[in-house]
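User: Sequence for N-acetyltransferase below. Tokens please.
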Amino acid sequence: MDKDDVDSADYSIEVCTDPAAIEADDWNALLARQTEPTPFMRHEFLVALHAGGCAAAETGWAPRFVLLRSQGRLVAAAPAWLKSHSWGEYVFDWAWAQAYQRHALPYYPKLVVAVPFTPVRGSRLLAADAAARAALLAALQAVARQEETSGVHLLFGDAADQATAGEAGWLARTGVQFHWHNQPGEGWADWPAYLADLKREKRKKIQQEQRRVAQAGVSLQVIEGPSIRDEDWAFFHRCYTATYLAHGHAPYLDQAFFQRVGRTLPAHWLMVVATQGSERIAASLLAIDRARGIAWGRHWGALAQVPCLHFDACYYRPLEWCIDQGFQRFEGGAQGEHKMARGLLPEPTGSAHWIAHQGFSGAIADHLGREGRGIEAYLDELGEHSPFKAAPTDRG
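Assistant: Structure tokens for N-acetyltransferase:
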């Protein structure tokens, strides 16, 4: 790679094909300096994805982690993957790939800066300062040229990532997710207080759904962090796999991955297990960050069908736990307008894209302009349907 493609500053550039070869302490220290660090960007999580083969060349996720060093010190890094498909990204570009195909041009491989299978906003361009972040972005473009890819896609980056990409002329794309925020001030006192702030029809629906689960003889237990045993992870994976297969898809993650992150990142997990009679029948998995007061709903699976259990295990019990623990935010994952009825409100998410082919770059820019205006209108429309009695900023 030509250093002149990156920056005139004195950076040495490395492309790493195995995240385990990167010094864990250096990576995690750099992550800790960012504005939106998440457990999913920790070295342990990324290594677990690769080591178990969930995100590896064999599954279409070939690592091309880009590192910048100055005087031997790691000053910037990004988890990048050479992709031969668009599965597991949650920023959908299938139409772009089809357009390339119609013009007899290759869309794959492409370079993706992301956490595989994880639609969670957070810092992606880990950098010591703004200059290193800009140089890292240029290095990613250089890697993309060297690998002869169609472009680079920065998914679910934080505000600093998006701003740096915008300054470099990358195309911006907006998506929508649904997040819950605790009441301003000290937060809701408890679950009944939260329900009381919802509009009557929303409150009654939640109460009816929880009552149906209880009447089916199902109880929910929350297991946090180190208390999650290997057998709990094995049970969860059984549920997770069964649900994927029931929908006609192979699961992205295997049991070894879950047990590995359970051992290496024990403080960052919360499992909600559903039991009917003496049998465990379902489970949901959340990631948590106690220091920042954030929880992320991540995975779910069931071995038996109980009406409304998904809502109770994936939203109501996690929200009740967040309120009890004084957490400030719960992110419910990708898409899902149904989450609004549970008190999760729409928020924009961002991605940034560098397209190597100038003609397609212009066409995609036009498309994103139209799409962006549609997203703005969609957010405005959703904003008129709050489930709360009063707007969030008016509650106190």
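Residues 183-327 form a domain with the Aminopeptidase fold (CATH 3.40.630.30).
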